Amino acid sequence: MEQGTSLLYDLVGFDVAEVTVSPLGVRVLVLCCVQVQGCPDCGTVTDRVHSRRPVQVRDLPFGRPWLVRWDKRGMFCDQARCPRRTFVERSTQLGPRQRLTSRLRSHLERAVSGSRRAVSDVAREYGVSWWSVNHALVVAAARVCGPAPEGVRLLGVDETRARSVRWMLSEAGWKRSDPWMTSFVDLDLDPAHPGGLLGLAPGRSGASVRGWLGLQSQTFRDGIEVVAIDPSAPFARAPRELLPGATMVVDHWHLHRLAALMLTEVRQRATRERLGHRGRLTNDVWAYRRLLLRAGDSLTGRQKSRLQATFRHHDPTREILHAWAGKELLRHLPVKIDGGARPYEIRERLDVFYSHAARSNIPELTRLATTIDTWWPAVEAFLRLRITNARTEGYNTNIKLIKRTARGFRSQTNYERRILLANAATAA
Ligand SMILES: [Zn+2]
């Protein structure tokens, strides 16, 4: 065959000997372009062939399916002291027991990882099986799923729902399956430090965090200076044990979320106690539930008077008003600190919140105050260091998109691989 054909075909290490076209596709007969081969045991080179065995491998499609046929040579090893008498020639493009060329496999892997396409979709386009594409992903994932690189200083730990809630019928009745995943992210914003998703662990318990941290090297653990987490007790226990030298931070958004939750709980309970049922559209406190959660200083004059009227007419115990005031007091803490407040100013504002909580004596508000008191050292560390978990939450959005494309995953391992590969593809 002409040299040009081999150049065009560009399969590294091979010459094209013959091309035939059939209704099934294009068949390319290739020959290894290196005549001599080294024995894998002793390294002695030889060109003595004892047999030829044809192998057929699928290659990248160019308009229609392409098949490569390679008459693989069996060689003799001429080194007298070598225990291996014969060996089969090897190639990086056409590896042993492979049904696809390496370049097709890396194409398949990139087609899935670089986009949010489903495995089945890519398999259909390339005319290969779902298993072939998945295998390509498994091989590629082995490179990124290993232990996290050392030198990470700022670690973010966050939870994400791995899939929607399922109900399963067991002998004891219906059981709720609520699968969660914990993600670990490098939070460093330093451009010299690319950051990224470091790993995933199934579940969202302290055991998930402990398991993943335990898999990392001691050097990795010693290098962590700051851990950003959600204010949840099981989450915090593992880093405290395994990363005793690291500072724990909880960012202020979590406080806002807890405060909003507290206000909603108070509103629901107060309404239930007053009316004997949950809130309805005709009931003003329920109708203005969104207004309650809005930032107090962003309300218009009309919204403010509406809220005041609600408190006057529909909140006889004044519990909703006190809960709302508690939320507002808390909301002012970080805003003030963003502007460069001193520690004693923060402390003063916090004391105003605590005394308000104590005077109001509402169970939900007291519970919130206790939670904040427990987590305050971590919040204060956040206010000082300004390291936020926002990036971790950004990855969670990506994770949800991957799940949606695949219409869910039956295998947790495949799911984790997809997430880590997609993340590696965006980081590259
Ligand atoms: Zn040998």
Describe the model.
This protein is an alpha+beta fold and 428 residues long. It folds into three domains: 99 residues, no CATH class; 138 residues, Nucleotidyltransferase, domain 5 (2-Layer Sandwich), CATH 3.30.420; 134 residues. The protein is 49% helix and 21% strand. The mean pLDDT is 81. Zinc ion binds next to loops.
In short, what is this structure?
It is built from 16 helices and 14 strands.
Task: Enumerate the distinct ligands.
Answer: zinc ion
Order of SSEs: HEEEEEEEHHHEEEEEHHEHEHHHHHHHHH
Q: Give the CATH level 1 class of the largest domain.
A: Alpha Beta
Low-confidence segments, ≥5 residues, pLDDT <50? none
Quaternary structure of the protein: single chain
Distance between the termini: 39 Å
Q: In the residues, how many domains can be counted? A: 3
Any idea of the CATH topology of the largest domain? Nucleotidyltransferase, domain 5
What is the level-2 CATH architecture name of the largest domain? 2-Layer Sandwich
The major β-sheet equals:
5 strands, mixed
Specify the structural class.
alpha+beta
Percent of residues in β-strands: 15-25%
Q: What is the alpha-carbon Rg in Å? A: 31 Å
* Average pLDDT over all residues: 81
Q: What's the β-strand tally? A: 14
Helical region count? 16
Q: Helical content, roughly?
A: 40-55%
- Using the alpha-carbon principal axes, give the shape: elongated
